[in-house]
Design goal:
The chain has five helices and two strands, in the order H-H-H-E-E-H-H. It is mainly α and 141 residues long.
Length: 141
């Protein structure tokens, strides 16, 4: 066999090998992503808050526009937000045992209502105190 044909065949083999490695890398990356999705869809983030305080925390973040799914449609944003919280978090229920969030709609409504204004002010005062304590710790480093 002539050396020109041999080089041509070797180039074909090398290019095939490069393509094969590229496909293998793509498959392994998507496998890792699938595994991460599987972990994240089964495991929920836990909270030290009771259900109403948990709702208040996220309602404030949503209502102030700090976290959102749909910045242009408040109703859609709230619905998506509630769905996200219900599917990805637990709260501290009776005796501190983590409980699934079956629905958080009522608690979100309470956050919006005037009747529960004092509860929200108390919650915000406690949150502000915690954040101020953290700020002091960081400043003292």
């Amino acid at each position: 066999m002539k050396s020109g044909k041999l080089i041509k065949y070797l180039n074909v083999i090398v290019k095939f090998d490069e393509r094969l490695r590229l496909v293998e890398n793509l498959i392994s990356v998507s496998d890792r992503e699938n595994k991460m999705q599987s972990i994240s869809s089964n495991e929920k983030c836990k909270s030290c808050y009771n259900k109403i305080d948990f709702a208040q925390l996220f309602y404030v973040l949503m209502d102030e526009g700090l976290l959102f799914f749909d910045a242009t449609d408040k109703k859609s944003n709230r619905s998506k937000f509630q769905f996200f919280l219900e599917n990805n978090f637990t709260y501290s229920g009776d005796a501190g045992i983590q409980s699934k969030i079956k629905s958080i709609s009522r608690q979100f409504s309470e956050c919006k209502g005037y009747i529960y204004k004092e509860k929200q002010i108390t919650f915000l005062d406690e949150l502000i105190t915690r954040i101020q304590e953290r700020k002091k710790r960081l400043e003292s480093w």
